[in-house]
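Hi,

I'm pasting everything inline rather than attaching a file, because the server keeps stripping attachments. The sequence lines come first, and each chain or strand is labelled.
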Amino acid sequence: MAFFSDLMATLFERRPASPPGPSKRPISELCEALLSSQGEISGVRLARDILSHYRAMSLDERVSFFQHLAQDLDLDPVAVAEAAAKYGTTRSPEDLYRLCREAEPRRQELLRRLNQAPGATEELVRMRLDLLRLVPDTPRLRVIDADFQHLFASWFNRGFLVLRHIDWRTPANILEKIIEYEAVHAINDWHDLQRRLRPSDRRCFAFFHPAMPEEPLIFVEVALCKGVPGSVQALLAEERETESAFDTAVFYSISNCQEGLRGISFGNSLIKQVVEELKRDLPQVSRFVTLSPVPGLARWLKELAPQRPEAEALLRAEEPAAIKALADDLRKLTAEYLLKAKRSDGLPVDPVARFHLGNGALLHEIHALADISPNGLRQSRTAMVNYLYDLEKVEQNNESFVTERKVAASKQAHALLMQGQTTGRKQ
Amino acid sequence: MAFFSDLMATLFERRPASPPGPSKRPISELCEALLSSQGEISGVRLARDILSHYRAMSLDERVSFFQHLAQDLDLDPVAVAEAAAKYGTTRSPEDLYRLCREAEPRRQELLRRLNQAPGATEELVRMRLDLLRLVPDTPRLRVIDADFQHLFASWFNRGFLVLRHIDWRTPANILEKIIEYEAVHAINDWHDLQRRLRPSDRRCFAFFHPAMPEEPLIFVEVALCKGVPGSVQALLAEERETESAFDTAVFYSISNCQEGLRGISFGNSLIKQVVEELKRDLPQVSRFVTLSPVPGLARWLKELAPQRPEAEALLRAEEPAAIKALADDLRKLTAEYLLKAKRSDGLPVDPVARFHLGNGALLHEIHALADISPNGLRQSRTAMVNYLYDLEKVEQNNESFVTERKVAASKQAHALLMQGQTTGRKQ
Amino acid sequence: MAFFSDLMATLFERRPASPPGPSKRPISELCEALLSSQGEISGVRLARDILSHYRAMSLDERVSFFQHLAQDLDLDPVAVAEAAAKYGTTRSPEDLYRLCREAEPRRQELLRRLNQAPGATEELVRMRLDLLRLVPDTPRLRVIDADFQHLFASWFNRGFLVLRHIDWRTPANILEKIIEYEAVHAINDWHDLQRRLRPSDRRCFAFFHPAMPEEPLIFVEVALCKGVPGSVQALLAEERETESAFDTAVFYSISNCQEGLRGISFGNSLIKQVVEELKRDLPQVSRFVTLSPVPGLARWLKELAPQRPEAEALLRAEEPAAIKALADDLRKLTAEYLLKAKRSDGLPVDPVARFHLGNGALLHEIHALADISPNGLRQSRTAMVNYLYDLEKVEQNNESFVTERKVAASKQAHALLMQGQTTGRKQ
Amino acid sequence: MAFFSDLMATLFERRPASPPGPSKRPISELCEALLSSQGEISGVRLARDILSHYRAMSLDERVSFFQHLAQDLDLDPVAVAEAAAKYGTTRSPEDLYRLCREAEPRRQELLRRLNQAPGATEELVRMRLDLLRLVPDTPRLRVIDADFQHLFASWFNRGFLVLRHIDWRTPANILEKIIEYEAVHAINDWHDLQRRLRPSDRRCFAFFHPAMPEEPLIFVEVALCKGVPGSVQALLAEERETESAFDTAVFYSISNCQEGLRGISFGNSLIKQVVEELKRDLPQVSRFVTLSPVPGLARWLKELAPQRPEAEALLRAEEPAAIKALADDLRKLTAEYLLKAKRSDGLPVDPVARFHLGNGALLHEIHALADISPNGLRQSRTAMVNYLYDLEKVEQNNESFVTERKVAASKQAHALLMQGQTTGRKQ
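And the predicted assembly:
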């Protein structure tokens, strides 16, 4: 094992202590050299030069660089069409090769060759992030993104990702990034981080890629509990009782770390692999749920308010205490929102619901007063829900969800819906 | 560093102790499921099933499977042509996306998803090897290879490879593969291997890929010497003097290990990275040469023999001793062969020369009686040559070689050529 | 974890690439310098000098060196006696400190300081081996061994040892030592080694010390079986069926590796830790036995032969086939030998029995025709036995063995003894 | 390398996830069992029981436990005296063995056997710390400390220690201890720690022991500078210029971490090994100095004040600004203090001076206004000094220091002394 683990160390060490300054040649010339046959020989050096050139560029220069990629290194649609026609006739391997070659923009090979430089993968992810930020103002640049996406889908293939346990023994430079990237329940400082990682009822897992070993791609925070929790404040309370008779693992926060990998999805794999990991290490844990926000609820209630006084009442509440008397209504309306509010494509309006239901999870429980923070009150009037991951059923749930737009839900959720609708009708 | 190195261990451990038996569903159905939206959910399991199915197949079944990939999961040339035409007109990002999607055979996505399974990369490399072996009999299958090549070029991108020092402390299962894959000067057994790895004047380096940590991709064996060596037997002699005043590193054997990665070239990068590594560790070593066979020489002499009595004389020699008197002629003819014998594309006939000159090396010295083994006598009448790697000049050499077909050669080589041609003319 | 594992790498790397040549000063002067206060400053360099001096010594010079240690760096018995008397009166801590200081030969501190040099621990173990080999001719030198033993007992304390799984992924330089040190059933070559390590029904474990990471201290080879095996040839047969329904782990070979650590016992701890390890990894394995030789049996039969015709018959057998008819007698006599043949201190004559019974094992089964090799025939007329390690009972067994000299044995063993004695009496 | 590094991981993992509760038997009985032959069998379990018993004890119970060790497990002075007399007569190895056995208190073997339990080394270090804290009130217990010291000197032998680079990639649980143990210039929080570790002109190194891999034993913080620094505030300033043309490494803080290892000295080795490490990694650094406090200066000035008005003036200064005008006097008096103020044994009064001069360093430069913190003003009126480590001269310096009590000092320091004495005389 150890020999193999050393491979990674080598990968990492390859980074140059002090990268050379940018070359004096214009970047388009360097790109051409890298793409030419000459590039095969001096690829690493050229790639390093181009990346170091890029790093030193102003925003305007980056726009020009991307425009160069978009216009001058595009594919030639006429040549593609001809090659396709030819292959349609001959069906010969040679003609397929030609078609594939013609159908790939030259910039894609450029990006592939740039990746030869030490540490390049990380820089290319950042380069795409720059691109994504420029697209709104310069939509034409979006053509380049097809190539980034195609390459990243290959490079960040699930088969190359590595799941790592994150704990208080993890190197500080990684932990620092966990603090930075936490997107759901902010981590304030190192003390707060310690509270998330050190107690015996907490776990954290992240995916890494071998070529970016210091950058987590996505991570999930897990709390071990007795029973299904109905309040995130209770879950994170510092003075909670640390049960040792855990039977439930709660995924209470999932954070994507790399904006530059937008569209390359890891969350589904991460949750499933973590479930398997926990099952192996903690056989006593038999239930795997989330404690998830309902981010679109308040907006939906607002639309509903004119017709439904109980929605309006909920929206009027100025602090959690005021919700208490309305808890039943909140739970019923949340059930209705998650089970009935659909987009034009038939999928739920709520993005978190779409994510977990799309992963094959089931809508399990609905809680009022579950997130009494200002943000919880604002976005969902304190409601939160548990999605349940039952590995035996995720495929079937997912299939029904995808093909029939059917939301898998517990009896409790259906009962709430029924009650709510009855109430709604009565009013 | 250690944290990062652990990532790799995790990668490796992910392999299932006992992989599940093949599923009962037909493989084409499994492939369809993996490609469908359902595949996103249960990808790892489906991929594992398909691969385990594949492993259990007979040769005929594999042919059918590949035919399925070739025919049923191809791209649609008509759709490609239409998408190309559309993009030609609009130049809109959406239309480029559509074109890229249409121009990619569905089997490529299938292979990408198969790679999710633990240990899949290695199996896909083997699958391509099966394919390459079937192509001569079923040329139609070569269409699939375009997809393998495209993916492998991304996956085995230089930026993801890891250089490892191989020595007597390397795990036995890796060393076993070094014995198996050595292609130039066979390693007979473990004792022989030890002689290649253990002495202080020997080095060995290999490239690995993080997802195939137990499989070297290519390796090079290095001997440290005083001066440029002119005999492989002397170089490998067991009783040689172990100089400590080395000034020369000799690459005397380079072996590709993975036939399934044919066409994905690593040798060029390997040599250059090893030169850099050795320069750092052994500052006293200032010269980097090969001691290379001249595999096409005897064949070329045979063609030449009718007109050139000295070639005929060389071909008549039945043992190395007989070459002794003809050593000068042999060296002159070798120079002529390497500098003048060209293919229709203007590149040297000799494949080893093409490889090293194409890497930017220079033809440095030519030796007679340098390989007196039966094989050396047969293929090159005992001649061997040194190619010199001077990192300062490899780019320029390579450029002249590629653009002008110019062979970089030392004065000694040119002098031999001149003498040989003078002799030739006189006769 | 990884951070901590790196510690070891550092330990290892500390060894000098090329140790300096021996200093010109006489070794006794260097030793004096190392022991003086000056030594604190330049200890590492002095220690390295002394060890390199020692390595270069002839046998005679080593004898002189040891004599110097024995005579000139001894304790002073008069000073010890005085300090003891003083402490007897005052019982003051200061006087105890003085007594401890006086009661420690100066050479002990010398050895402790020698250990500062990189790689010194291994060299000191070799130095003691030299000493042990000289003692028979120069018994006076044995005084030094008290100091080696005292230090090694501290340094090689069980708490510092590390259990490692040895398999086909272990570095070749370690495996080479497994071949070299195997003491029970010789490993002929690398192919043979592979057969011991690679099959799924084989395991091997070794103890290492952090300061000698390339030197196993002791190792045990384990075979997984269904049922308790009664033949070592069957156990090691190349074409055996590889059961997967293992229920028994068989320790069929235990080898001490470091003669220089004689008297520092590891075997007991090793077996117990391996039992725990296997229990955790292979819950289906519920029985832990040895398959052990009976090395003293033939000698004992020879003594017995005049009175016991069945012993004489066994001794006459010239090949295993001839034992077949006498198998019952052989098993009865083996039971008698192991249960009744005692040394003057009441412990069994058989050294292997003493080891395992002393560890708390129980004499479980007795087999004839269990080792049909020439050596098996010679030393035990083909008999072998299983000792059973039942962790629940080892303490109690050991206590009875130590305090009452009682041999824990199965009903089968007792029954054989009874039958044998009945037969014996009848004749 | 990797194989060996894994050894450590194993060491570490051995710790039980949940240690068993204390046994019901009284601890003295458990100790007796561990010391008896029975202990050999069940040593690990007994050792674990005793340690877990100890952990659960109240302070009073610990005193009783130590008293048991002191009285009941002591050596027998009469037996020692007899054995010494016998060995004095016979000089036989057997009698030496007997003497050694008698001269070792039984508690020493007990401690050795306790160390078999996983994680025991760390617990024994803590146990000694308990002991050291009890000794002032119960001086009799100090007899036990002889045994702890003897064992720790063997166990923590320089040859077993491991030097580790500490940086921002070090695991958080180790870094947390660096914050906790920093003894010279307090680290306030994680942000402050980052400033000590992350900048390119900072280094930190620590010694670890393989059996306590999560506990640094001692660490040193290093700043890289251009020239010899004369102010700790400037050295630690957040906005300093980060020179890349470093020529000097400054050891500005050395902290012992384990009070339980008091008397086992590591600082000398640490500094020298770090000097060697830095020389190898940063060849441009040619000077190695400390920036050290002068903790006893103010006290000495107070004694001097009656006779020396310039000392009195310095003591009157209420803030650093007031020292400015007196800087010359301060530097002269500091020179006088370090070169002339001696204890009865002839060594300098100043403890920091004793440490560095005893290591073979040279008193290099003396600075006023070098530590303008309240503590710096209080203890040394803002003076600090550089001690210079010149590896070529440390031995010679140390020898003169130890044998002739000679303080190695630069010309500048001697010049200051001369001026000061002249001034002093004049007044």
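The CA atoms of residues 160 and 266 of chain C lie 12 Å apart.

If the labels don't parse on your end, tell me and I'll reformat.
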